[in-house]
Amino acid sequence: MEQAGFTGVQIGPPVDTFSESGGEKNARLFEVYGYAFLAHKPE
Amino acid sequence: MNRQLPVDPVALRDEVKAKYQEVAVDPHGEFHFHTGRPLAKRLGYDDSIVNPLPDAAVESFAGVGNPFSLQPLSPGERVVDIGSGGGFDVFVAAQQVGPEGRVVGIDMTQEMLDKSRKTAADMGQSNVEFREGLIEEMPVEDGWADVVISNGVINLCPDKELVFDEISRVLKPGGRLQFADIANGATVPEAARSDIDLWTG
Predict the structure, then answer these.
(1) Are B114 and B85 a contacting pair, CB within 8 Å?
(2) pTM higher than 0.80, yes or no?
(3) Distance from CA of A24 to the nearest CA of B (A)
(4) What is the interface size between A and B, counted as CB pairs within 8 Å?
(5) Each residue of B31-74: pLDDT tens digit?
(6) Contact call for A37 and B181, based on CB within 8 A
(7) Structural domain of residue B108, as residue ranges?
(8) Nearest to A12 among B32, B70, B173 (CB)
């Protein structure tokens, strides 16, 4: 994101998106979580 | 510019299309991810926004987070949702921007576009539109959007640099990108990074 010029990047807390789903095993293996991101394009 | 990518983007795109055709047509089928209203609840969407939506607007939702959790949209804003799928986040955004705002969803899967367009028509939702396109080459004019949103889509694009450049192109100066996506804490081995099946499942 920053390479593309975005600034002020914020990242929210992790969400256990794949818990109790078929993808849980791979998610646990690679420590995969969902996150919210916020960034701004400069004026 | 030709960049070294871990997988063939066209082959990956075909796999993603096939997967999300299934989610559009058979949203209650077996997938490696959660879908629909239970997923929206798990991800912290506000019941007061989700509950009034018809099943068709929610059942094919397959996001990985909540792109509105760090900042809500404001009335009157112009929004682009990249990889809009069945339209769930577009309909949530439409409630936040109100009748003076506008939300454009972009998706490459025809079954998702058919579904989201029909749902919008059935809801009488006049401030939304769904366009066919790729997020690496969006059918949106330069500097049109106040906000770009996305949910669980950018991770499916091997050329992230191209995607973020394209998002920057459609945003106006001072605009913002708010999206949800997955990230891994453990290192993914090279062999796994080039395995298309792992990208989609």
Answers:
(1) no
(2) yes
(3) 8
(4) 115
(5) 989 999 999 999 999 999 999 999 999 999 999 999 999 999 99
(6) yes
(7) 9-200
(8) B70
